[in-house]
Amino acid sequence: FIFFSLLGWLTAGGLDRFHSEGEIYKRVMIVFPFYLFFAIVAWMIQDYAKVILVDRDLSLFKAIGQGIRFVFSHFFSTFFLYFLNGITFVFIFYLYWRTPTAHSMLLALIIGQIFLLFRIGMKMVNLGTATLWYDSKTV
């Protein structure tokens, strides 16, 4: 809601007043990094709350509170871990979309299947690395 409102403020008067898509794109690129940062922080808190919920067998709200505290007390290391996981995902995504499908159907099929498996496994990788990092910091 906050980012939608901010984008609405940047495009006040409606999109018709812009002469090209480039002007709209510039405005969106102002808001997008902030949205991405806050979304990543929310995902980090969610994943660490899941790890704490399972590890300590707490209530949901206590686990969320401890997840928030853990993420912000180890912010740079947890953010860097998510950054590395995200860069790996972006690399596989790039390989998938750069595959010439008309020229080599078999290569496109193989990379497409790897991409699907990687998307499914990405959540497990995030939770697994979060669990390992959480265990190393709380021992």
Q: How would you summarize this macromolecular structure in one to three sentences?
A:
By secondary structure, the chain is an all-alpha fold.
Distance between the termini: 39 Å
Q: β content, as a range?
A: under 5%
How would you sum up the global shape? flat
Largest sheet: none
Order of helices and strands: HHHHH
Low-confidence stretches: none
Counting copies of identical and different chains, the oligomeric state is single chain
Structural class assignment: mainly alpha
Helix content: over 70%
Tally of helical segments? 5
Over the alpha carbons, how many angstroms does the gyration radius reach?
A: 20 Å
> How many beta strands in the DSSP annotation?
0
Mean pLDDT: 78
Question: Overview of this structure, please?
Answer:
The chain has helices at 2-10, 21-56, 60-73, 75-98, 105-138. It has 139 residues and is mostly helical. The longest helix has 36 residues, at 21-56. The mean pLDDT is 78.
Fold topology:
Elements: H1 2-10, H2 21-56, H3 60-73, H4 75-98, H5 105-138
Which features does this protein show?
139 residues; mainly alpha; 5 helices; flat
